[in-house]
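Methods — Computational structure assignment.
A single polypeptide chain was analysed. Its primary sequence is given first, followed by the predicted tertiary structure written as structure tokens.
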Amino acid sequence: MATTGLAEWAYPLAESLLAEPLPRRWAHSLGVAERARLLAPILGEDAELLEAAAVLHDIGYSPDLAKTGFHPLDGARYLRDVADADVRVIRLVGHHSCAWMEAEARGLREELESEFPREEPHLADALCFCDMNTTPDGTPTNPVDRVNEIAGRYGADSLIGMFIRRAEPEILGCTARVLERLAAVKRQPM
């Protein structure tokens, strides 16, 4: 699949999987995609690729797709096995927002990484930035508040709560790297 038209393809697919069974997750996904569009100045040819991955990143929560209970893996497998998605979108969905750390905690890291190689670091950073700067309702936030919200929602002693605290330094690093790239683009003479 060519990267042109990816977003046009991705939105109805994500909507069909999330809007009805998980309307709040759908709102979050739309907000993440909105953040992705704001990063276009630093993404060049990959802007549409990131937007498609952003709107699709949480499809693994769909009751129709949830097989392992680990949404990045379930979503990536669906995109590969059923939707015939672009391989780069699949990789981004499978590894979004430090997924390898949660996969490790679930005993699924080897499975995730053997099936889905990681995508380019600047794109992984960008998707993490978009996800961690969006509330569950799709509105803008910051990564510190987002990590606190996730830990609070799942409980500090839960697998997710422990994973998100462990991932917090990397999430903040992703955010810093993306903001630095945006600042560098804005400093460029016209």
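Note: The chain has a mean pLDDT of 96.
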